[in-house]
Design goal:
Layout lengths: L16 E3 L2 E3 L5 E5 L6 H13 L4 E3 L17 H13 L3 E5 L6 H7 L2 E4 L7 H8 L5 E4 L6 H14 L4 E5 L15 H10 L4 E3 L1 H5 L2 H13 L4 E5 L17 H13 L1
Helix pairs in contact: 1-2, 4-5, 8-9
The structure holds phosphoenolpyruvate and manganese (II) ion.
The site of phosphoenolpyruvate (PEP) has 10 residues, from loops.
């Protein structure tokens, strides 16, 4: 196995990522949950209430959706960002949303707690450089066909600018397989954990594209001592405006949280 030595060595210390009342890389397991896309205030508020009731601290929500087809729901855009900001504040939840391009940087700096760089933007180097200049945590997804080395080097672009608040996220690669949407690469998550000083989480929703695998892989992530998972939840996944097929409902979410406590 090739030893990756290309990225900057550190002093052996882990980098703690801290935002409000949430800490990554201190041994805790952080579950980030919420809809693929924010649809309206009512459903986002219900999701926030469910998360708070179950002791959760982090709320995800897609705002500017980067969809394969331009005819699919594109997200609420700026209105979605405002909703996430308001609901996050009201329920004291740390918010996570994907930045679509450098043009939305000011808006995201002002309104979002953890800025997600989606898989499609992992190698958007001009954007990574800009994110290196800010002081906000960045959730950096691995690109669908990026090697571990390319993923870690993408993180270096942010680190080099002076921002070390980065959470790495394995979200599955494009492979020959069709039963699953992507092939969730747990070995990459473990490799990143071993090679990097940064916290590492997985996204079993996009990583498998199958609701029936989300809870099990989230439990596996905790078992593997990873730093958390980001999952899609919805009150009624059958009518979700995006990614319902990989989204678990509220009841399953509650069961998952209970079993994570037991682990
Ligand atoms: C998402 O988390 O909403 C998303 C689109 O993920 P990815 O960039 O991994 O496809
Ligand atoms: Mn999604």
């Amino acid at each position: 196995m090739k030893d990756l030595k290309v990225y900057k060595k550190h002093d052996g210390q882990k980098t703690i990522v801290k935002v409000k009342n949430v800490t990554f890389n201190d041994g805790s397991f952080n579950l980030i949950a919420g809809p693929c896309s924010i649809e309206d205030r009512k459903s986002l508020e219900k999701t926030a209430q469910l998360i708070v009731k179950n002791g959760g601290k982090l709320l995800r929500g897609g705002t500017f959706k980067l969809r394969t087809s331009p005819y699919n729901f594109q997200g609420l855009g700026k209105e979605g960002v405002e909703l996430l900001y308001e609901i996050g504040k009201k329920y004291n939840l740390v918010t996570v949303s994907e930045i679509p391009s450098i043009c939305e940087l000011e808006l995201f700096i002002e309104k979002i707690d953890i800025i997600q760089v989606g898989a499609r933007n992992m190698d958007n180097y001009p954007m990574l450089k800009e994110l290196g200049k800010i002081k906000k945590p960045i959730l950096l997804k691995r690109g669908p066909s990026a090697t571990i080395e390319e993923w870690l080097l993408a993180a270096e672009y942010i680190l080099n600018g002076g921002n070390d608040q980065i959470i790495l996220c394995e979200r599955g690669s494009t492979t020959f397989e069709t039963y699953t949407r992507n092939t969730l690469d747990l070995s990459a998550a473990l490799a990143a954990k071993k090679l990097s000083h940064l916290p590492v989480i997985i996204d079993p929703s996009h990583g498998t594209g199958r609701a029936d695998m989300v809870s099990d892989f989230t439990k596996v992530a905790k078992f593997l001592s990873l730093d958390g998972a980001i999952i899609e939840i919805h009150e009624n996944p059958d009518v979700a405006l995006s990614d319902g097929f990989q989204t678990i409902d509220f009841k399953e979410y509650e069961e998952l949280v209970k079993s994570l406590w037991k682990l």
